[in-house]
From TrEMBL:
Catalytic activity: Fe-coproporphyrin III + 2 H(+) = coproporphyrin III + Fe(2+)
The protein's annotated pathway: Porphyrin-containing compound metabolism; protoheme biosynthesis
Organism lineage: Bacteria, Bacillati, Actinomycetota, Actinomycetes, Micrococcales
Residues the entry annotates as binding Fe-coproporphyrin III: 70, 139
Organism: Demequina lutea
InterPro entries, alphabetized: Ferrochelatase (IPR001015), Ferrochelatase_C (IPR033644), Ferrochelatase_N (IPR033659)
Keywords: Cytoplasm, Heme biosynthesis, Iron, Lyase, Metal-binding, Porphyrin biosynthesis
Designated name of the protein: Coproporphyrin III ferrochelatase
Subcellular location: Cytoplasm
Length: 394
């Protein structure tokens, strides 16, 4: 998909003037770090939804398979170290703190820590690239709640960097990963008729349709005044952003691998099975591939690190599905701490942070969907209710 036909979004005009910040908050999801942590962690994730422990134990099996340890925390520790090294190499005096939504270190504890260290202006880097309630607004709500919990309103100012789905630092490593996967299939003799699957976390269809700003659909057509019809039936900006990046990736590998078919699929759905979520599920999509497909590249495009949904749902379940139908498959890596990704995150910091009157860094984006907004309108990525957020306007 090319985005040349899309008109400029109102979102692209929501740019905050650069300012001087004191520190960076790396905002993660969090995960258990031992068998005793698993159920308390899952209770945190599902709090308020009435999910019984018996159901949580079904999900807990994924974590118990890995000793009760989610890889996400260690990966964020590694990302924090990599960010600190890149920030130091650029001569930026910005310490990096790390906090999570659902497990230690919690946002509230980290806000108390950085405030005690003398910081008051905080720039937030979230470990998700795409627009959705769970990938953006929920972080902004939870940080606002932590600010209220700590009583530090008026003492701390927190701003969030924009979504970075189409920043070169995110896109280029994904291009190289898919190219590498296709090369691996060819080297193993399975490259005659390859297929590429881009996998991302499924979310409820209502949340997908509500993702991103409301003033236009992802196809560029305006939202009818006063409503009257569902504003978008194609997964909202969440799906549109991912389709756009998958297209960029496949266009970039055409020089070496022309005419390779690809699909955007979904994984890791949970909750009430009667509630519609984005489809197709990755395992059903694998089963439905043409019989003459010679090999499959699985790209976890929707994730920035190889955490539990990648380690279990892809490396275990999806590859098992491939094995059952005798299909050669390569799961390629996420961006993780790839140097271009780390550098790109610091680019995002330098779009917003200026010191000693220095000019902000150019805002880079590889699609006409971006550069994405710095602040979100009040109805952007609406979720289970209206809660205070950071980085919101209107």
């Amino acid at each position: 998909m090319t985005t040349d036909a899309l008109p400029p979004l109102a979102a692209s005009s929501r740019v905050v003037p650069p300012a001087s910040y004191d520190c960076i908050l790396l905002a993660g999801f969090g995960g258990p770090e031992g068998q005793d942590d698993v159920i308390p962690y899952l209770r945190n994730v599902t709090r308020g939804r009435g999910v019984p422990d018996e159901r949580l134990e079904e999900v807990a099996l994924h974590y118990r398979h890995f000793g009760g340890i989610s890889p996400i925390n260690e990966q964020n520790r590694e990302l924090k170290v990599a960010l600190e090294a890149e920030i130091a190499a650029r001569g930026l005096a910005l310490p990096v703190y790390w906090g999570n939504r659902f497990w230690a270190p919690y946002f509230a504890d980290v806000l108390r820590e950085l405030h005690a260290d003398g910081h008051c202006r905080v720039l937030v880097l979230v470990t998700t690239a795409f627009s959705s309630y769970s990938g953006c607004r929920a972080y902004r709500e939870d940080i606002a709640a932590a600010l209220s919990e700590t009583g530090l309103e008026g003492e701390l100012a927190l701003d969030k960097v924009r979504q970075y789905f189409d920043h070169p630092g995110f896109v280029e490593p994904n291009i190289d990963a898919v190219r590498g996967g296709l090369r691996a299939l060819a080297a193993e003799g399975n490259g005659a008729r390859p297929h590429v699957i881009f996998s991302t976390h499924s979310i409820p269809s209502t949340a997908a349709d509500a993702s991103g700003p409301r003033e236009s659909r992802p196809d560029g057509t305006p939202v009818p005044v006063g409503g009257g019809e569902e504003w978008n039936a194609g997964g909202g900006w969440y799906a549109a952003q991912q389709r756009a990046i998958a297209t960029l990736v496949m266009d970039a590998v055409k020089d070496e691998f022309p005419d390779v078919p690809w699909s955007l699929v979904y994984q890791s759905r949970s909750g009430d099975p009667s509630v519609p979520w984005l489809e197709p599920d990755i395992n059903l999509a694998i089963e439905a591939l043409d019989a003459d497909v010679s090999g499959l590249v699985i790209s976890p495009l929707g994730f920035v690190s190889d955490h539990m949904e990648v380690a279990w749902d892809l490396d275990n379940e999806a590859l098992e599905t491939c094995g059952k139908r005798g299909l050669a498959a390569v799961r390629v890596p996420t961006v993780g701490v790839e140097p271009r990704f780390v550098s790109g995150l610091v680019d995002l910091v330098q779009e917003r942070h200026t010191a000693d009157g220095s000019a902000p860094m150019e805002r880079r984006a590889l699609t006409d969907l971006g550069p994405w907004q710095d602040v979100c309108p009040a109805d952007c990525c609406v979720g289970r209710g209206s809660k205070p957020t950071i980085a919101s306007a209107g």
